[in-house]
């Protein structure tokens, strides 16, 4: 097999199977080094050792870099706060070797290390099955290195996202509460103005609200639908399907595939499946823009079976009902994120919904993980935390070989033009990105809010930042040192203003001027009890904050403050005076234990702007005792917050909410509001909230 290399460290030879783009280990009994073999231009390169480096090791030629011709070159070198990681920045395209002498280490080592790597300016492509095998065999080697030192690997799950206030004032029915106007995200319940499409378990219910009856249902046995979208007379259902066998010793060796089923619902009583396509992996995100559906998934092949000498298909699977067969991604369609050290694939597909019966599903596949996405009208931005395995060490009591490195985040930009997808830029961002609302594109610039460090404990060292990038993801402006010791709980960008909520003991709301991309500036700050983990624009100068009230108590033993979340909190912020934002009003709902889906899923927010009504599903507890569940609707104007509709069913002796009766969404059609529960849909007058009837879903 090709890509076999010999690496010398301290005079000891270690034979490591690597691809030119893969993970490289330098190992001797005393000194171990972890690094990737390639990075992009402007991407930070890390080399992590199992021995600590001296603070002054960057001086006196203890550490230096040579180019391919053996010439010493200048670069920005630093040592990470862990004392064991060398950080290299500002190198142009080329091939380099980092030389770390034995004098650079705190402990005596027999000799130093020479760490070769390359800086590239474009994605590297897989050219053969052997290349692909080499990549995963290198990962297996990595895992074996750590297992042999009593380090256990764990899987890291990817979690899954210009402000918009949602549907227009003149809309005759509810629309999904999308982050960016015109870019549909899909939801568990949607409406076309007469019919409500909703999910329960493995069934899609199509309910005729004019006749107040279930028109039909689509049963997806042994499948797990998660999102619905309406496009003209088509219903798009996204679901997960578990596929594949278990091994002889009962280990699961199958996979998960995200399927996109397109139904013709012109006749709602007889929906017809027109076409079904799929791609391997769990959903990272789904978007529809300008009649194109984009789907992003993550998957890990069963490469671990290679340890046992089994033949493994490492390419992700695709499905298209036109051919009625599973296929695999072509080798020449697989690229690698330089610096990738993960066994994940990220798969991005696009299909034209106007030609849904015949259109080709365009697929781009990358080795490297993506954990979240934000989409503008021009591009998909994908984030991935930077992970760095820890070298084995007796002074580390760890259960995982992977830690987030500096809380840093890799950011990839994929330009989209119809079904064409092309990665056009990438960068490393300092800090971690909370969710899709921490990113926003405006007039060609991307704004990103991040948190670095750790906000917890008596010595929390966290910090919060706002970075601004041009179309090539070059940093043009930066704001740092926001609320040191706290972390970001929510963010919202509204044109030339950014609003960021941080929290540790109180809730600072920062108003930030981002009109000048080169000079973002804090204009005002408001500190109040509690925190908001979702911000929603009411108008240009008012924000609705949804989160929790909090209580701070001093621990009798540690003498440190402990923060308790209490009831759910709705806040109304007035940011007319940007230098002095104020909380106009607030509403505390229930006590400790109260929660709503809207606190972690913005699509659960009900919006009827014409009437100033905002609502959400809720389960209410008081002093951790169950009170009831259902939904609440508030009348929210710039003047204040007032309860308008109460659809909470009081507890009748039960200790917890019942799954069947839990309200999951609220929608409106013309003058009627509907609560969507797992077992029924209930209709109310949208003005006075009097009950008009209900439909049992069965």
Descriptive notes:
This protein has a 6-stranded mixed β-sheet, with no helix packed on it. The chain has a 6-stranded antiparallel β-sheet with strand order 18-19-20-21-24-25, with no helix packed on it. Among the domains are: 4-121, Immunoglobulin-like; 553-571 and 590-698, no CATH class. Mean pLDDT is 84; it is low at 1-27, 145-169 and 389-405. It is mainly β. It is built from 1 helix and 53 strands.
Helix segment tally: 1
The chain-level structural class is: mainly beta
Low-confidence stretches: 1-27, 145-169, 389-405
The proportion of strand residues reads over 45%
Entry keywords:
six-stranded mixed beta sheet, 53 strands, 698 residues, mainly beta, Immunoglobulin-like, globular, 1 helix
Short description:
With 698 residues, the chain is an all-beta fold.
Secondary-structure map with pairings?
Elements (H helix, E strand, L loop, with lengths): L3 E6 L2 E6 L5 E5 L4 E5 L1 E3 L4 E5 L13 E5 L4 E2 L2 E4 L5 E5 L4 E7 L12 E8 L3 E2 L3 H19 L41 E3 L3 E6 L2 E6 L4 E7 L4 E8 L2 E10 L11 E10 L7 E9 L1 E8 L2 E8 L17 E4 L4 E4 L5 E3 L8 E8 L9 E6 L4 E4 L3 E11 L12 E16 L2 E10 L9 E4 L2 E8 L10 E7 L5 E8 L4 E8 L2 E7 L3 E7 L7 E8 L2 E9 L2 E13 L6 E14 L7 E8 L16 E3 L4 E10 L2 E13 L2 E7 L2 E2 L12 E7 L2 E6 L2 E6 L5 E6 L2
Parallel strand pairs: 5-12, 26-28
Antiparallel strand pairs: 1-2, 3-4, 4-6, 6-10, 7-8, 7-11, 9-10, 11-12, 13-26, 14-15, 15-16, 16-17, 18-19, 19-20, 20-21, 21-24, 22-23, 23-27, 24-25, 27-28, 29-30, 30-31, 31-32, 33-34, 34-35, 35-36, 37-38, 38-39, 39-40, 41-42, 42-43, 43-44, 45-46, 46-47, 47-48, 47-49, 50-51, 51-52, 52-53
